Each structure stands twice: as structure tokens, then as C-alpha cells.
Amino acid sequence: MPTAKLIDGKAFSAKVREGVAKDVTALKTNHGITPGLAVVIVGEDPASQVYVRNKVKQTAETGMNSFHFEMPADTSEDVLLAKVNELNADPAVNGILVQLPLPKHINEAAVIDAINPEKDVDGFHVINSGLLATGGKGMVPCTPLGCLLMLQDTLGDMSGKKAIVVGRSNIVGKPMAQLLLDANCTVTIAHSRTKDLAGEVAEADIVVAAVGRAEMVKGDWIKEGATVIDVGINRIDAPERGEGKSRLVGDVEFGAAAERAGAITPVPGGVGPMTIACLLKNTVTATCRQNNIDPDT
Ligand code: NDP
């Protein structure tokens, strides 16, 4: 029987989006500014298309301006860079997101580098990762920011807690570890060369799994009462649902982990919905900073 509290990312993200909508109204009413988010997608990757459609819809729902650019898969790097520069220069655009992955002939790092760091609402620009690492005020990547908000909502003060982040990617694992460190946790970062992953996880009060391997963090590794945030999204075969059917699972063995954890995010419905909500939140933050506005006014 699961005993863990379920951390409902769907409900929590709706609250975050409501807060964003209120901020957007205040920006319009008090300052005459409508935040604008530009999303650029190159090619026809079906998963990216679905994700971008959701972003565009949710951006409009908060009252922001949504600018959406679809470019063909054979777009050259120069043409994409020119589009980024055009958006950098456009005062109606406060946030720019170039959907990754890009087609192989385009250098992703060069494109991210070209985005004005103040408009980099994905928080991937090296200036923003540097600011995060040195305690400055940059843009924080959306998925780790969503995880942090859920952890703060569940645990309140995290000072002194032992946290483990499994995974060290630039977009999830590393910034997540940095945010936990800023929240005064004692942080371990595990990766594919970690010896005794089970032993490391068993020590942790907070477990964030961002690996991309279905249910690889086993339920019996989890310390009793720990808080578990599962970032992974993995599609696995589900013959029990019928021939050719599949389902989504996380990086954590949910059923067994829920019997030991104090609180846990489900997949789907946990971290996923928070990512877009944080993108919208970052767009408001970027708009306020670009206009020297205190976000509470
Ligand atoms: P990456 O593939 O970039 O990174 C995976 C990390 O996991 C690497 O650091 C790798 O270690 C580590 N790893 C791989 N195998 C093991 C292992 N056996 N033991 C310990 N560590 C291991 O993935 P991302 O960070 O981009 O994404 C991780 C997951 O999160 C994916 O499932 C992705 O779909 C999901 N995701 C979900 C989002 C959401 O909105 N919910 C947003 C972004 C990602 P090493 O560095 O040594 O290779």
C-alpha cells in the first residue's frame, strides 16, 4: 500500500500559472507592458511539436503575447541565428525559447549562445549557468526550477537535509544540484560512474532522479520518509493495455518507492506540467528585470 503523499504537479502547476496570469495583469495595468514569449521550432519532431503547441496555448492563457515561429528542418544555422538576433532586438519579445533538439547540421551551443541572456527563459546560456553557479540573479532552467518549487511547497525549509541528484546533465542534473545547494542542502551528484548508487540514495532525505532510464532507482533504495522527485519520462511497452500499447514511467520504481517515501511525484502528472509553468514564470521575471520593475508592484 502506498503511504507517500502524492505531489500533484498538475494541480501545483495550475496554481503557478494562476500566479503568472495575475502578474501579467498587474504588468499590463500598472506599467502598460504585455510580456511576450517567442518560441522557435525547427523541423517536425512530433514530441517537440506537441510540447510547443502546449507552450503556445498556455502562454496565451496567461494573457501574454505568444510569438510562434516554425522553420523547416533544412533551415541553415545562419538563418536560425538571424531569427534569434531579430528576436533579441524586438522589444515586444521578453523571452526566447529555441526548442531542442535541433537538426544535426545546426550547432546547438552556437544558437543558445546567440540568445540575449536576459531573454534566455530556458536558462541554458553560459552566462545564466555561471550566474546560477556563483549565486547571481540569472534565469534558472525551467525543469529544475519546477522541482525546487515542489520541494519547497512540500518541505518548507530544506536547510541541512541530505539531497541526491541522480544525473548530471546541463539542463537538469547540474542546475538542480546548484539549487539544492543554494537551499542549504548537503548535495550529492550521482552519475553513470557512481559506485554504490543504492547506498548513496539510501542516505538521502531528498532524491531527484533525472537519468532517462525506466524505473532504475529502486523502491527499496529509498530512505523511509524521503521526498522523491522523479524527472524521468520513459515510454515502455504495456502489453497489459492491449497489443502495441505503451505507457509512461519515470526513473523511479514508483509503486515500491511510494511505500517508503514521505512524498513522491507521479509520472505523468508530476514534474512534467511544472516545466511549462516555470517557463511562463521565467518570462514574467525576464520582463520585470528588462524594465527594472519590482515583480511585486
Ligand atoms: P541526459 O541523458 O542528458 O543525462 C542523463 C544523466 O543520467 C547523465 O548524467 C548520466 O550520467 C546519468 N546516468 C545514466 N545512466 C546512469 C546510471 N546507470 N546510473 C546513474 N546515472 C546514470 O538526460 P536529461 O538530464 O536531459 O534528462 C533526464 C530525464 O529527464 C529523461 O528521462 C528526460 O526525458 C527527462 N526530462 C524531463 C523533463 C520534464 O519536463 N519532466 C525535462 C527534461 C528532461 P553520465 O553523465 O555519467 O553519462
From TrEMBL:
<keyword id="KW-0658">Purine biosynthesis</keyword>
<comment type="function">
    <text>Catalyzes the oxidation of 5,10-methylenetetrahydrofolate to 5,10-methenyltetrahydrofolate and then the hydrolysis of 5,10-methenyltetrahydrofolate to 10-formyltetrahydrofolate.</text>
</comment>
<keyword id="KW-0521">NADP</keyword>
<dbReference type="InterPro" id="IPR000672">
    <property type="entry name" value="THF_DH/CycHdrlase"/>
</dbReference>
<dbReference type="GO" id="GO:0000105">
    <property type="term" value="P:L-histidine biosynthetic process"/>
</dbReference>
<comment type="subunit">
    <text>Homodimer.</text>
</comment>
<keyword id="KW-0486">Methionine biosynthesis</keyword>
<dbReference type="GO" id="GO:0035999">
    <property type="term" value="P:tetrahydrofolate interconversion"/>
</dbReference>
<dbReference type="InterPro" id="IPR020631">
    <property type="entry name" value="THF_DH/CycHdrlase_NAD-bd_dom"/>
</dbReference>
<dbReference type="GO" id="GO:0004488">
    <property type="term" value="F:methylenetetrahydrofolate dehydrogenase (NADP+) activity"/>
</dbReference>
<dbReference type="GO" id="GO:0004477">
    <property type="term" value="F:methenyltetrahydrofolate cyclohydrolase activity"/>
</dbReference>
<comment type="similarity">
    <text>Belongs to the tetrahydrofolate dehydrogenase/cyclohydrolase family.</text>
</comment>
<dbReference type="GO" id="GO:0009086">
    <property type="term" value="P:methionine biosynthetic process"/>
</dbReference>
<dbReference type="InterPro" id="IPR020630">
    <property type="entry name" value="THF_DH/CycHdrlase_cat_dom"/>
</dbReference>
<protein>
    <recommendedName>
        <fullName>Bifunctional protein FolD</fullName>
        <ecNumber>1.5.1.5</ecNumber>
        <ecNumber>3.5.4.9</ecNumber>
    </recommendedName>
</protein>
<feature type="domain" description="Tetrahydrofolate dehydrogenase/cyclohydrolase NAD(P)-binding">
    <location>
        <begin position="141"/>
        <end position="290"/>
    </location>
</feature>
<keyword id="KW-0560">Oxidoreductase</keyword>
<dbReference type="InterPro" id="IPR020867">
    <property type="entry name" value="THF_DH/CycHdrlase_CS"/>
</dbReference>
<keyword id="KW-0378">Hydrolase</keyword>
<feature type="domain" description="Tetrahydrofolate dehydrogenase/cyclohydrolase catalytic">
    <location>
        <begin position="7"/>
        <end position="122"/>
    </location>
</feature>
<dbReference type="InterPro" id="IPR046346">
    <property type="entry name" value="Aminoacid_DH-like_N_sf"/>
</dbReference>
<keyword id="KW-0028">Amino-acid biosynthesis</keyword>
<dbReference type="InterPro" id="IPR036291">
    <property type="entry name" value="NAD(P)-bd_dom_sf"/>
</dbReference>
<comment type="pathway">
    <text>One-carbon metabolism; tetrahydrofolate interconversion.</text>
</comment>
<keyword id="KW-0554">One-carbon metabolism</keyword>
<dbReference type="GO" id="GO:0006164">
    <property type="term" value="P:purine nucleotide biosynthetic process"/>
</dbReference>
<keyword id="KW-0511">Multifunctional enzyme</keyword>
<feature type="binding site">
    <location>
        <begin position="167"/>
        <end position="169"/>
    </location>
    <ligand>
        <name>NADP(+)</name>
    </ligand>
</feature>
<dbReference type="Pfam" id="PF02882">
    <property type="entry name" value="THF_DHG_CYH_C"/>
</dbReference>
<dbReference type="Pfam" id="PF00763">
    <property type="entry name" value="THF_DHG_CYH"/>
</dbReference>
<feature type="binding site">
    <location>
        <position position="233"/>
    </location>
    <ligand>
        <name>NADP(+)</name>
    </ligand>
</feature>
<dbReference type="GO" id="GO:0005829">
    <property type="term" value="C:cytosol"/>
</dbReference>
<keyword id="KW-0368">Histidine biosynthesis</keyword>
